[in-house]
Amino acid sequence: MAAGETVRQLNAAVRDPAFHARVRQVGADAIRSIGPVIADEARRVGRELAYAHDNAIPGNWQGTVTEMVAISEFMRESGWSLTWTPPYWVISEVLATPDLRERQSVVEAAEPLILADLDRLLRGVDRPMLDHYIAAARQALEAHRSGYFWPCQALCAAALTTAVHDLWEHKKLGKARAAFERLHPNEAGLFDLRAYAVRGAVGRVLRNYPDDGPVPIEYNRHASTHDVDPRQFTDFNSLLSVMLLVSVILEVDTTRRLAERYEQGEDVSLSA
């Protein structure tokens, strides 16, 4: 058949209402046959995304992605842990307060809530590889509650050092710090924000200071391990140290739990 004749027949078919009816019927039949498959796959993907989201965003975080990035950025700049605890209203007040001393007062006022959260959160972790870290965090919590702030802070600094070496497999603290400082929240995907935030706070705490320089007043791993100076060992730094240690424990546990469920091929729905 000549090409011109074929084109004329096609044009005639397109103008025929019956042609469009047949096309719609074919489409409808196809949708009926593959629709359930698509729907099931969409539900599965939706469940996976919901589970991943709930494990990527700590329960105490709220607001827009921009606000969550701001939380992550604050942790990176301050070394304060704001993941899982304190409550969101405390975080909001901290971020809205420009003065460091006033920010500290906001956190100190919420200390009873924070300590209760830390105790509850630790009870929810049951992973043998974290047993020693949980034991350290529990003893640090008890020391802090009892007013023994220096032992609490020193124990948390030691446990944090070991966690960076063993749990995150960084044998050199300087290289760990450099790696964590490269994780900028503005470059993180939604599911990476929590991981970036925790590592960013740890990176800040891992910073060194000159041997002939003043001991930093903010919580610092090196100063808490190699110095005995009341400018470093304070009740507030004691609180910050145990908050950060618990965040690292929860970060490792949450990441491993999600990875294990995927490796085992489990349904990752929220009800699973």
The major β-sheet equals: none
* H/E series: HHHHHHHHHHHH
Broad shape: elongated
State which percent range the strand residues make up.
under 5%
Number of helices: 12
The counted number of beta strands is 0
Q: Roughly how much helix do the residues carry, as a percent range? A: 55-70%
Low-confidence stretches: 268-272
Task: Report how far the terminal alpha carbons are from each other.
Answer: 61 Å
Number of domains: 2
Q: What's the rounded overall pLDDT mean?
A: 86
Overall SS class? mainly alpha
- Please tell me how large the radius of gyration is: 27 Å
Task: Explain what you see.
By secondary structure, the protein is mostly helical. It has 2 domains: 3-53, no CATH class; 57-263, no CATH class. The protein is 70% helix and 0% strand. It contains 12 helices and no strands. It has helices at residues 3-15, 17-56, 65-78, 88-96, 100-109, 111-123, 131-145, 149-167, 173-181, 193-205, 221-226, 235-263. It is elongated and about 95 Å long. The model is unreliable at 268-272 (pLDDT under 50).
SSE layout:
Blueprint: H1 3-15, H2 17-56, H3 65-78, H4 88-96, H5 100-109, H6 111-123, H7 131-145, H8 149-167, H9 173-181, H10 193-205, H11 221-226, H12 235-263
Helix pairs in contact: 3-10, 4-5, 6-7, 6-12, 7-8, 7-12, 8-12, 9-10, 10-12
